[in-house]
Amino acid sequence: MKITDRSDLWWKTAVVYCLDVEKYLDWNDDGIGDFEGLAHRLDHLAELGVSCLWLMPFQPSPRRDDGYDITDFQAIDPRVGSLGDFVEFMRTAKDRGMRVIIDFVMNHTSDRHPWFLDARRSRDSRFRDFYVWRDEPPKQQPEVVFPGEETSVWEYDERTDQYYLHSFYRHQPDLNIANPAVRDEIAKTIGFWLELGVSGFRVDAVPFLIEPPAGVDVGDPHEFLRDIRRFLQRRSSDAILLGEVNLDYAGQLDFFGHLDAPAELTLQFDFPAMQRMYLSFVREDATPLAEMLAARPELRIEAQWANFVRNHDELTLDKLNDEEREEVFDAFAPEESQRIYGRGIARRLPPMLGGDPRRIELAYSLLFSLPGTPVLFYGEEIGMGENPDLGGRMPVRSPMQWSTEANGGFSRAPARKLVAKPPTDGYAPEHVNVESQMHDPESLLAKIRLFAHRYRSSPEIGWGRLELLDTGEPSILAHRIVADVGSFIAVHNFASTPVTVRLPLGDVSEEARLSDLLADTVVPIDDKGRADVEVGAYGYRWFRTVDSRDRRLT
Fold this sequence. Notes:
Immunoglobulin-like, globular, Oligo-1,6-glucosidase, domain 2, TIM Barrel, 8-stranded parallel beta barrel, alpha/beta, 22 strands, 6-stranded antiparallel beta sheet
C-alpha cells in the first residue's frame, strides 16, 4: 500500500462525525441550530481529528420525524439557513480539510411533499405512480418498524379509496422505486448535491428501500443500488454511499456486492459487532465481540465497515437472542422507560456505564482501534448524556453542550424557544461541556482527540487484515491488524481487575519491539515472538510493531 492510496480511497482512514445542524449551534438566537453556527464550530471538529462530517437531514420538513419526513429534496430548511449559508459552510469545511456527506432519505417522502399531495388527489395524477397504492393490503404483511406507534405498513386514503405503503410512519409514504421517473428524481437529487460539493450520501434504511413487502414488485432490487453506485462514480469518482443495513453479515454482504459482482454500498455500519460489544461489557468477557469479529466476511478492497458505539436512533439489540438482549437491558436499561420498541435502548453510553470513565474510554478505544472507519455521534467526544423528557428515540438528540452558559452555550434564545432542551441531571451542561474539557489532558475530549489522531496516523487499521490473538484470558480482546506498512496491535480488558497477558506474535524480526502509541514506552518481544503486556482494569493498550527498518516516526 502506497501513502497515495489513502487519498484515493479516503473513507478507509476517515474519522466520521454525525451531527444534526439544528441541534449543534444556534448563531441567530432563534433557538434552532443553523449552518452559520456549524461553520463557527468547524475548528472544534478539526482539532478533534474529524475528516468527514455526516449531516442529518436539513431539507424542508414538517419535522414530524426529526427531519426524516422531507418535502423538498433539493432545498435547505429556512430554519437552518439558506443555500448560500450551505455553500459557505461547505467552503469552510473544505478549508479545514473536512469532507461532507449528507443523509439521503430516498425510501419515502413526507405526506406533505408536493408529489404526494398531487398523487392523492386523483388516481389519474401524474405523480400517482411515484408511490405504491393497492385496493386492498396484501394478506401477508411485515412487522411494523415502530410497534406501539403503527399497526400496519398500509394506510387507507379515503380520497381515492386505496391504501398506500409506508414502511415507517403513516405520514411517510414510500416512494415507488420501480418507477423510472422516481429513479430519475433520485439521480437528479444526487447530482444536485454533488454539484454543491458533498462527498457522498448516508442512505437511510437500505433494506426497506429495495426489499419491499410481499406484493410489491421493484424488479431486481440490487440492480437499483448498482445503478446509483454507477451514477455516483460517473459524477464523482471519490464519492461514497454509507448504508444503514441492519442485517447479519450474510445479508450485509449482499448490499456491498459480492467479490465477483458489481459494487453497491461503499460502507456499512457493523450492527452485529456493535451489539456484541455491549454484551461483552455486561459479561466482562471479550468472547461475544471476538466471535463476531472473527465472523466478519471478506470485502472488496474499496469496501469498508463503519464502526460505531451508537447512532442517532435507538441503540438496537435486535441481533442478540432474547436471553442476551435481556442481559443487556437489565444492565444498561433497567427501567422500562429507557427501552423502546422491545429491541432498543434510548440512552447514551456514559449514563449506561454509570459514568465510569475507564469503561467509557474502553468503548471509544475499541471504536478507533477495530478494523474499519470510526463514526462518532455528536456529543460523544465529551460524554454527553440523554434527556429522557424528549421521549421516543429523541432523548439522545438533545442540543450540543458547549459551555456552562444558559442552554449549554447552544443558543441565547429563551429556553422555551429551543428546538430541544438539554439534560437537567448530572449530565446537564454545567457538568458536561466542551469548554470545561478543552484544556484538561485527562478529559474524555482529550482522550478521543488522541484516539482520532493515532488512528489517522495508523493506516493499518483501515487497510489491514485482522488477526485475533489468543491470550487465554476471557476478559481480553487482543487483535493485530497487518498491512504492507506494518502491524498495529490493540489489547482491551473488559474486566474490573488488571491482568498481564502474553501476546503470541509469532515470526518477527530479532530487533522487533512494541512501540506504545498512547504512552512513551516500549515493550520487548522475546526470542519466541512473545510480548508480556500489563493491562489495567477496563484498560487498553495500543502498539505498533517496529524494528530498525521501520522509517515511520513513533
